[in-house]
């Protein structure tokens, strides 16, 4: 694997750390009707994060540690803002997985493509609409 794949895997790991933190905020603010959805997404991102730790090690790198806290893109005072944050988190992590798809091959590429697809589907569920090319439109 190339150093590009390792760098992209490290970026995906850093993004997953941030998303796990963000879903902690979402879970604390989202309404009861969507709390289960937030919990499921949180668990999925924790699993992806843990898999990326192993991937970075397998590629010869030292996995980046999570920060103590992350800045949010906007204030999250209520349930509506929590839903917007969840969609934003998914868009951001989809973009990073698009980079990993480009930089990798074989099973890592398949895993990254699956993670990209899952993030795009979750973003649509949170937002109610989608984008034509998940992970790419957000780069503009």
SSE topology sketch:
Elements lengths: L2 H27 L2 H27 L20 H25 L2 H22 L13
Helix pairs in contact: 1-2, 1-3, 3-4
Summarize the structure.
With 140 residues, the chain is mainly alpha-helical.
The largest pleated sheet is described as: none
Q: What is the third-level CATH name, the topology?
A: Ferritin
**What Rg do the Cα atoms give?**
15 Å
CATH superfamily caption: Ferritin, core subunit, four-helix bundle
State which percent range the strand residues make up: under 5%
How do the helices and strands follow one another from N- to C-terminus? HHHH
Give an overview in words.
The protein is mainly alpha-helical and 140 residues long. It has one domain: Ferritin, core subunit, four-helix bundle (Ferritin). Helices cover 72% and strands 0% of the residues. It has 4 helices and no strands. Helix 1 runs antiparallel to helix 2, helix 1 runs antiparallel to helix 3 and helix 3 runs antiparallel to helix 4. The radius of gyration is 15 Å and the shape is globular. The mean pLDDT is 93.
List keywords for this structure.
72% helix, 140 residues
